[in-house]
Amino acid sequence: MLPQSSLPPKLAFGPFEFHPASGELRKNGYKVKLPGQPAEILNALITHPGEVVTREDLRIRLWPGMSSGDFEHGVNAAVNKLRQVLGDAASEPRYIETLPGRGYRFVAPISPKSGSILELVPTRSALAPEPQPSRRRLVTWGGAGAALVVLLVSWVAGPRSPVLLKAARFLISPPKGYYLEAAGVRQSFALSPDGERIAFTAKDSSGAFRVFLRDFSEPESRPVADSEGGYSVVWRPDGQSLLFTSKGKLRRVGVNASVSQVVSEFGPYFSSAIPFGSGRLLVCNHKNCGVIPSSGGPPRAIDQWYSWAQLLPGGRDFLYTIDDPQLGSMRARIAATGGSEQGVEVVQSDSRVQYTGSLRSDGGYLVYLRAGTLLAQPFDLAGRRVTADPKAIASHVSSFGHSGAADFSVSARGVLAYQSFASRSQFIWVDRTGKRLSAASPATLNGNYLRLSPDGGSLATAVFDVERGVTDVCLYDTRTGTGRKVISGPGISHVPVWSPDSRRLVYLWDRSSPRLALSSLDGTPDPEPLPNTGFMRPTDWSPDGRFILYNNSALPAITQRFPSDVFAIDMVRGRKVIPLLKTQFFEYEAVFSPDGKWLAFLSNESGNAEIYLQAIDRSDDSLRVTGERFLVSRQGAQCLRWRKDARELYYLGSDGQVYAVPLAFRPAAVQAGKPEALFTIDAEARATLHSPVSFDVTADGSRFVIPSIAPGESSAIVVLQDWESLVAK
């Protein structure tokens, strides 16, 4: 082991202080009990930060003369105990990183109490361009959560100036029990203007979102006040407060505030919010824009469309990005704040475009996606022109169709963040206990929605193409797992639903606005288009083939206050649209019973999303629900499926478990038994895409096909500090 450097009496990391000489550990000032061997291991690691302390080093230091087998058991137990005390985890290390087959490394920022600084993660002052300080040792490594360039300070007699980190790469993972959702129509994470913090949304096992804030000088993220249901988030230009949407309201909250305030009833999500003239705020999503008084109030619609607006340096102009269906891509323009002009076009892209200044020149960059690659193109802001070819930063970064949404963010001071899309999802067959039986699709499918054909021969799903930023409908043979793409083209093809004869699919198609489309698997053209009533998401097709059900909402309908009603299209009588469930409640995910006599659906009339059954009346040769509603679930539900004989109904609960409910029918009434928990669908598999999650079941209820996730690194946000130098290397 390398000789131990001369260190201050105490070292601080996160909420802890450690005394190397005595082995004393304190947390938030209070002494923490730490046994001898874990204390010795912490001493060995913390006094050589960033370096690999091998298992052989630990054996010589702590277990001299011990046999290999006993030592292996001893060091594993001691490291596990140390992690328990620190609240650390080997899978997501904050303090101690395991290098399999080699040893361990201390990876957290350390501050000696004597005033010098030992840094493994950059401080805020590291972001300013300044002369490169001298350094005693350079250590580099790759891997999740590790800095690309790390400068270590050795203490010697007499005071020394701190050595500051210039460039770094590290990961921001959501808190335990939360997961990041890729792509979508919203702004899911955003760097503060000064690059010192990041705000991000994540969802839990029930599918509920929340906003979190991570200060890069702190070891952990913390929830933002009143952000339950938080779905979109942006920073105000001063970097001291956030705007976010939650439960249909636009809220504002200070960085350290314990309570938020409602700004407006803008809607369920937004993409940008910037000052727009005196005392006004321009708030937009990819569909519409409104101007809100800075103090709050109802939005006033404007004629122009300024999605993904970003205030530029000086505050007089802003950059925005709009979709051009004729061009088949996005156009970025610069316009004056408070005006009504379209402005000057500066670049075309596959996603929204953001501007960031350069730390190394007088110019700046336009950052955007093209074919799934994150690019930074040199840009002269004063001249409104690009000056060189774009530089590639990262691959497999997701966007989402014509919405312009993309998983990246930039700050004004050399910090950039992005989330790469991990192709780890797959559909698998399981039995009623959740035991895996076989694969139902390839291992890198990129999907979490599926429907089995009525004849049981095929599985229909929507597969995400990260390079195009869209989903295509694919079919997989349920016996062999082989597949083929059946619906593809410009725009998004999603949530396919089978006809009862297994020969056609109705699905959501979205190029400029989401509507229904119909395709025959034999290529037979549809004799007439389906009606277009705005947002239309199919959920089922009646057993007799006459009626197609759809919602006028996307998920999460209830948590974000999307208007949500259920409609039917009469395929026999002129494709007439019939309002089926249209109440003051949020109702969606409706499916027919196998005999077509009952409707099962989700509603929030109890306060939570629960499953209800209601009888169907077709006496007047039309379609309507009638009689009492019967409650089926009790603790929340997300997706439902029938067994072929209607004796059981299955649903995905808010806890991530699939439940089976026995049903008994009698005239005009149904008796639902106690739900039985069968198995759990992995929460990370359900959070893979901006998509409704689903499962399906065979006719006899003995086997299920579910989304799963392959082992690997969980999704995380990659943060690059002084990203220009990292890209150059």
Uncertain ranges:
1-6, 114-165
Overall number of strands: 59
Report how far the terminal alpha carbons are from each other.
31 Å
**Can you tell me the overall shape?**
globular
The Rg value, from CA coordinates, equals 28 Å
Widest sheet: strand ordering = 4-3-2-1-8
Please tell me the overall pLDDT. 85
Q: What does the main sheet amount to?
A: 5 strands, antiparallel
Please explain how this structure is put together.
There is one protein chain. The chain is mainly β and 729 residues long. The chain contains five helices and 59 strands. A five-stranded antiparallel beta sheet has the order 4-3-2-1-8, with helices on one face. Strands 28, 29, 30, 31 and 32 form a five-stranded antiparallel beta sheet that branches. Strands 52, 53, 54, 55 and 56 form a five-stranded antiparallel beta sheet that branches. A hairpin with a 5-residue loop joins β24 and β25 (317-324). The protein is globular, with a radius of gyration of 28 Å. It starts with 10 loop residues before the first strand and ends with a helix.
